[in-house]
Design goal:
Blueprint lengths: L6 E6 L3 H8 L4 H10 L2 E5 L2 E6 L1 H19 L6 H10 L21 E2 L4 E2 L4 H12 L2 E5 L6 H14 L5 E6 L15 H20 L1 H9 L3 E5 L11 E5 L7 H8 L7 E6 L13 H9 L5 E5 L9 H15 L1
Parallel strand pairs: 6-10, 6-11, 7-8, 7-9, 9-10
Antiparallel strand pairs: 1-3, 2-3, 4-5
Helix pairs in contact: 1-3, 2-4, 3-4, 5-6, 6-7, 7-8, 9-10
């Protein structure tokens, strides 16, 4: 049996306060890197000593150095930031400025009022680029891959930079496998439960108070898909979420609302269709009919792009394996 050669690498960090932030509370950030690369990290003074297989040691060193550079730039390092570096291989960050200049290589940052949003996988990075580069973009893949979250982040960025005048977010009001019956309240109160994921994303980027003000001013609209009929959506950033639950006719209706100066994003998960048996999903038809048209991008995600709890990816893979039998 071959014996794997182990190596050691010493990283020295000049600012001990930043090094404390790099390590995280109870060295949780170091533990995350250790687990991902199967290496050991020891802290001595202002140094980190990394032990393990040569390739794993080098990869871990790149991640730690990239995280330290992030701290030097005045940004924080949370669990999600460590996860992103581990997925992206310690790429050097590259900002996407307010003029929407295209980028090549590196990461991209999407600025919103409350936070800086950074893609955490290569598929997410490509998706964000395509959202800026195309007037119509599709994001297709399982739950937890950031399809809607990133689309809303880009929409907020374009809105606050003045590239669009308003944001319109909608979903089909379809129950997910259970009959909820008649909901009490006004029309808005009846549909709000279906729209909650969109509110959650907006509140993350703008805050509840600003979202409320912008909704009153009609700068942000959150509505069921059926409310889009008969409208022409100009100078707007429009997101259709859960598009797998739109019928073929609803999808055609929505796509033909696109007006001058607008951008549309359609997100969906083909494995979670809640339409009645025998009703064709409009997302599948759109994918089949539009995939060859220039300036329309189709972005696909897999379980590897899930950025929720690690168990979510394992659950998705288990279901996909069962369906493939």
């Amino acid at each position: 049996m071959a014996i794997t050669e182990l190596t050691e690498k010493v990283l020295e960090f000049p600012d001990n306060y930043l090094l404390i932030d790099l390590c995280g509370a109870h060295d949780r950030n170091l533990a995350q890197v250790e687990s991902a690369h199967d290496i050991q990290i020891q802290r001595r003074g202002n140094q980190l000593r990394i032990y393990g297989e040569p390739t794993a040691v080098e990869a871990a060193a790149e991640v730690l150095e990239a995280l330290y550079q992030r701290l030097e730039a005045g940004k924080g390092v949370e669990t999600a930031d460590v996860d992103r570096e581990l997925r992206m291989g310690g790429d050097v960050a590259e900002s996407l400025d307010a003029q929407m200049e295209m980028f090549s290589g590196g990461r991209v940052e999407v600025k919103t009022r409350k936070k800086l949003v950074e893609p955490r996988t290569e598929a997410q990075k490509t998706y964000v680029r395509n959202l800026y580069d195309n007037e119509l973009a599709f994001g297709i893949g399982p739950a937890g891959t950031g399809k809607t979250y990133l689309a809303v982040a880009v929409g907020v960025n374009m809105f606050i930079q003045g590239h669009v005048d308003r944001m319109i977010l909608c979903r089909p009001a379809v129950e997910a496998g259970e009959r909820l019956g008649f909901l009490p309240g006004t029309q808005e109160e009846k549909v709000d439960p279906y729209m909650q994921p969109l509110y959650d994303a907006l509140n993350d980027f703008l805050g509840p108070k600003e979202v409320g003000k912008l909704r009153e001013a009609k700068k942000i609209e959150i509505a069921p898909l059926a409310f889009m009929r008969g409208r022409t959506l100009s100078n707007a950033f429009v997101v259709l979420d859960e598009a797998q639950n739109a019928t073929t006719m609803q999808m055609k209706m929505f796509l033909t609302r696109l007006g001058e100066g607008s951008r549309m994003v359609i997100t969906g998960d083909r494995s979670q269709v809640d339409l009645p048996r025998g009703v064709q999903s409009g997302l599948q038809d759109a994918e089949r009919l539009l995939s060859g048209i220039p300036k329309i991008s189709f972005n696909y995600f897999t379980a590897k792009d899930v950025v929720r709890h690690p168990l979510v990816a394992a659950i998705i893979e288990a279901y996909e394996a069962d369906e493939a039998k």
